[in-house]
Specification:
single chain; globular; mainly alpha; 72 residues
């Protein structure tokens, strides 16, 4: 008997996006977007972008990973 795969943690993704820009975005499967945020964080634009994504993840506006699985 196989179990259904568990969703990824939106709390973890949101907090990591605040602490280390882009990492939370990469965790939920958006690798290219996360790398761009991480690289742009050195000139502050990526940090703001990452914080905006963290806000959207934590408030539920982004509620699925890149493969369409719900964040829990």
């Amino acid at each position: 008997m196989t179990q259904a795969p568990q969703g990824k943690s939106k709390m973890l993704a949101g907090i990591l996006n605040i602490v280390i820009p882009g990492v939370g975005t990469m965790i939920i499967g958006y690798l290219g977007k996360g790398i761009a945020q991480l690289l742009l964080s050195f000139c502050c634009v990526g940090t703001l972008w990452s914080w905006w994504d963290a806000y959207q993840i934590l408030t539920g506006k982004i509620n699925k990973d890149s493969q369409g699985n719900p964040l829990v």
